[in-house]
Amino acid sequence: MRRRLLLALAIAFVATAIFPMPRTGQAAESIADAEAFIDRLAEQAIAALQDESLDAEMRQDVLTRLLDDSFALDSIGRWVLGRFRNGATAEQEAEYLRLFRLSVIEFMTATLNRYSGEQLVITGALEDGPEGAMVVSRIDQSGGRPFEIIWRIRQTNNGLRIVDVLAGGLSLAKTRRDDYASTIRRVNGDLDAFIDILRRQYETNATSGT
Length: 210
Hints:
Layout: H1 2-16, H2 31-50, H3 56-70, H4 73-81, H5 90-113, E1 119-127, E2 132-140, E3 147-156, E4 159-167, H6 173-186, H7 191-208
Antiparallel strand pairs: 1-2, 2-3, 3-4
Helix pairs in contact: 1-2, 1-5, 2-3, 4-5, 5-7
């Protein structure tokens, strides 16, 4: 079941297309540490999902803390914003990162709560240049072809963090980055208008539970 839960986390990242590759921080301490990190994430998420003593709000709080502690969301958000970050005020960047974090966590927790038990198998791990490690996994779908999910991990000042996920050999970072760039250009570079779009999208998704 632990391996199945990893699929739910992977699907959440694939669906939101946030796959940056920030190059800050030191290398992950070891390949074994990286694999253990992913296993521990799955174990803790499973415990929260199966704990019948938690009501919906308490479970949401537990999963939110877990995701905050596992993903480098600020680094991911800055990478996704790309060159447009250069023109942002401190207030705009702070609000953008707040909404980015809320949107990602809302989507991922909603995905976890709909988890239905597809199979995922960790097939190994390897060094990811001098700065990190990649944990390689495979999704075995009933009635479908298997495909690969790769978790990219970095050692940060706060410990190991997931900074990237690749699905089927394809990183969707550029897709999300291009989507944001397209939206910003559509509002003539107005970051306040862009942030308002993100805010409305988050509020709509949070209300609908998607």
